[in-house]
Every structure is written in structure tokens, then in C-alpha cells.
């Protein structure tokens, strides 16, 4: 499928799923608690993103200074950046994906998948 199709489907379905989740969770725990959860996940998530982003930035600088290609650090940095955007977007689905991107083994799995997929299409230097 083309990237336009994927983006269209994502921009259509993600807000609908988020609205449905807000309704379900709001009915179960109440509006106040639902809003509190959204605010807490944004605060905790932004703190985690800042810490991991700083660590990744310093690792990137060390790799560049030592002449090592910083592929892993660049990929981690991109995923942490996406994670931050998702965590600051109100919603349970986006928060779940955002927190998953902050888990190093999850990022490693995504990197491995992307590398396997890229090798089929381009010449990739590890």
C-alpha cells in the first residue's frame, strides 16, 4: 500500500479510536479521573522523553567524536522524538504507543524490523 493510503487511514482511524477510548474510560472511571490520567501521562512521558533524549544525544555525540557511524543513536533519537509527540497528544492509544517507544527492547525490535525491510529495497550499510 502507498504511504498516502497509510497516512489517510491513520489520520482517519486514530482520532476515532481515541474518542471511543475516551468515552469508554470516562464512563468507567469518570471524567475527572480520565482527565487526570491524560495529564499525568503527559507529564511522566515528557520527563521520560527528556531523560532518554538527553542520553541519546550524548551517545550520538560520543559516537560521532570517536568516528563511529551513529545509526543506532539516530534511529533511537527519531523514535524518542515520535514518542514525545505521541505522549503529548491526548489519548490512550497514542500514549500507549508513545510509552512503548520509550522501552529500549521495543526500539531495538523496530530497528531490526526496519533494517530487514530496508535491505530488501536499498543497499544498507550497518
Identify the notable features of this structure and list them briefly:
126 residues, mainly alpha, 5 helices, flat
Roughly what fraction of the amino acids lie in strands? under 5%
Number of strands: 0
Poorly predicted runs are none
The overall pLDDT average reads: 92
Largest sheet: none
Shape: flat
* Helix fraction bin: over 70%
Number of helices: 5
Task: Report the C-alpha radius of gyration, rounded.
Answer: 17 Å
Query: How far is the N terminus from the C terminus?
Result: 27 Å
Computed structural class:
mainly alpha
Structural notes for this entry:
This protein has 126 residues and is mostly helical. The protein has a domain at 34-119. Helix content is 83%, strand content 0%. It contains five helices and no strands. It has helices spanning 3-29, 31-65, 71-88, 92-100, 104-119. The radius of gyration is 17 Å and the shape is flat. The mean pLDDT is 92.
Blueprint (SSEs and pairs):
Layout: H1 3-29, H2 31-65, H3 71-88, H4 92-100, H5 104-119
Helix pairs in contact: 1-2, 2-3, 2-4, 3-4, 3-5
TL;DR of this structure?
This protein has 126 residues and is mainly alpha-helical.
Amino acid at each position: 500500500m502507498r504511504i498516502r493510503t497509510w497516512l489517510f487511514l491513520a489520520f482517519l482511524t486514530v482520532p476515532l479510536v481515541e474518542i471511543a477510548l475516551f468515552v469508554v474510560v470516562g464512563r468507567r472511571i469518570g471524567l475527572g479521573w480520565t482527565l487526570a490520567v491524560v495529564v499525568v501521562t503527559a507529564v511522566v512521558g515528557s520527563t521520560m522523553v527528556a531523560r532518554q533524549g538527553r542520553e541519546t544525544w550524548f551517545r550520538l555525540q560520543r559516537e560521532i567524536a570517536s568516528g563511529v557511524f551513529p545509526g543506532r543513536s539516530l534511529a533511537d533519537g527519531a523514535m524518542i522524538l515520535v514518542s514525545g509527540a505521541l505522549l503529548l497528544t491526548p489519548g490512550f492509544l497514542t500514549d500507549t504507543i508513545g510509552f512503548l517507544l520509550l522501552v529500549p527492547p521495543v526500539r531495538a525490535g523496530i530497528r531490526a524490523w526496519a533494517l530487514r525491510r530496508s535491505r530488501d529495497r536499498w543497499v544498507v550499510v550497518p
